[in-house]
Specification:
- 38% of the residues lie in helices and 13% in strands.
- By secondary structure, it is of the alpha/beta class.
- It has two domains: 173 residues, NAD(P)-binding Rossmann-like Domain (Rossmann fold); 230 residues, 3-Layer(aba) Sandwich (Rossmann fold), CATH 3.40.50.
- Helix 1 links the parallel strand 1 and strand 2.
- Helix 7 crosses helix 10 and helix 11 crosses helix 12.
- The termini are far apart.
């Protein structure tokens, strides 16, 4: 059993620490109050370091709040991440660490940041860069069932620190992931480009959805399913379902940071600006369609958080759509239990235009069952009934007669007295 310290026990750090604590003695430290399930919180950073074999640092590297992706960002100046908190923590860790210990940074940074700015702060111990590929709502599952584990060292050697960390992860993993060993710079590159590849992929498939809406006689599902099955060139079916835009705390943020890097490196082009602009225009196009349908009816967006079953609003494509609706003076409401947004009953009792922004079946697939306690809290037993609840066919939300339901996932069946529009399918039934 190893002795592990986690510094930064927030949305990411707490869930990861709890999974590590299933196997190893674990303590955590954070400036905010945290109530973990199975590990001890200590009162000082020094207590999280002294005597620990591995110290994980999960500090935020944010942008300014106005870059959070809930409103347009393409007009804002290019901007790097803010590394202030990470630097402060690493300096304090170095003051009390020893050569026998290993400091592992899991926060997202741009390529070159560790080598230029962070590694020089660590002089008394070993330093590894190990960014995680996890998502809110399934953090614990993602932690022990990763697609790959990236481990970056100064020279990219597969021996020494990298092997030690691989051996550690083998004690907690529930799958057999691909271990990618590289330099600090390579792993920084993998992490941010992994996220921006997804952003670009989502933007491309949602462009197909836009074309379907404006061109006519096209079902975006048919087009995207064909592309998704062209594995050899398109890279598989993941994120090939047109629907809502890319979101979350990481994806818009990483694209914005890479806009800054493209300018700093004088690449002569900025793909990332185009990705962010397309995200905004796709949200605006969806908003225009909702407003065309609404007339005097209110618009209700079902799902305010950036994805189903979580309360986090950072990078919410729902809120980006809502931004354009509010700017045109339309009556907008959100329906999302997770964020505490429930319209008044008199609004729900009358006709409205609904956008079904969330679909757990599409978002999570088989992982839906890994969200602890959600089914119990909603009095449902499986994915099908969870989907019914969130699409208005269950007990928690029903549509007044005369309402219009816009479903960008194209899953909602016909509802008597309600017009159902499968956004992105102007062809009709297949």
């Amino acid at each position: 059993m190893a002795s592990i310290g986690f510094i930064g026990v927030g949305k990411l750090g707490q869930a990861c620490a709890e999974m590590v604590a299933e196997v190893h003695y674990t303590v955590g430290y954070d400036v905010n109050e945290v109530k973990p399930e199975n590990f001890e919180m200590v009162n000082t950073l020094e207590e999280a370091v002294v005597g620990k074999d591995i110290i994980f640092v999960a500090a935020p590297t944010p942008h300014d709040p106005k870059y959070d992706g809930k409103a347009p960002t393409s007009h804002l100046p290019n901007k790097d991440f803010d590394y202030t908190i990470v630097k402060e923590i690493l300096s304090k860790v170095d003051a009390v660490a020893t050569k026998e210990q290993m400091v592992v940074l899991i926060s997202t940074v741009l390529p070159g940041t560790v080598r230029r700015e962070l590694a020089p702060l660590i002089t008394n111990t070993r330093f590894v860069y190990n960014p995680y590929l996890i998502a809110m709502g399934t953090v614990k599952w993602d932690m022990v069932n990763p697609e790959m584990v990236m481990i970056g060292t100064e020279d990219g050697s597969e021996t020494g620190d990298a092997k030690e960390l691989v051996d550690f992860y083998k004690t907690i993993m529930q799958n057999d992931p691909n271990y990618i060993i590289g330099t600090w710079d390579e792993c920084e590159c993998i992490k941010v480009f992994y996220n921006t590849f997804i952003s670009a992929k989502v933007s491309l498939v949602n462009m197909i959805q836009d074309v379907a809406e404006k061109q006519g006689n096209i079902n975006a599902e048919v087009v995207c399913d064909a592309l998704a099955n062209s594995d050899r060139r398109i890279m598989g079916p993941g994120y090939m379902k047109p629907g809502m835009g890319d979101g979350g705390a990481c994806h818009p943020r990483d694209n914005i940071a890479l806009r800054w890097m493209a300018e700093e490196l004088d690449l002569g082009y900025d793909l990332f600006d185009a990705v962010m602009l397309s995200r905004e225009k796709q949200a605006e196009n969806m908003a225009k369609r909702l407003m065309e349908l609404a007339g005097d009816m209110p618009i209700i967006i079902v799902g305010k958080a950036y994805k189903p079953l979580v309360e986090y609003e950072a990078g919410s494509s729902s809120m980006l759509v809502g931004h354009y609706i509010v700017n045109e003076g339309f009556n907008l409401h959100y329906y999302d239990e997770q964020t505490g947004d429930i319209p008044k009953q008199d609004i729900l009792d009358n006709p409205a235009v609904y956008l079904l922004a969330h679909n757990p079946e599409v978002t999570y697939g088989e992982q839906l069952d890994t969200v602890p306690g959600w089914y119990d809290n909603h009095n449902v037993s499986d994915c099908d009934t969870a989907l019914a609840v969130l699409t208005g066919n269950g007990s928690e939300l029903s549509f007044a007669q005369g309402s219009i339901v816009v479903d960008p996932w194209r899953k909602t069946p016909d509802i008597t007295g309600v017009q159902v529009i499968h956004y992105g399918n102007t062809r009709g039934a297949v």
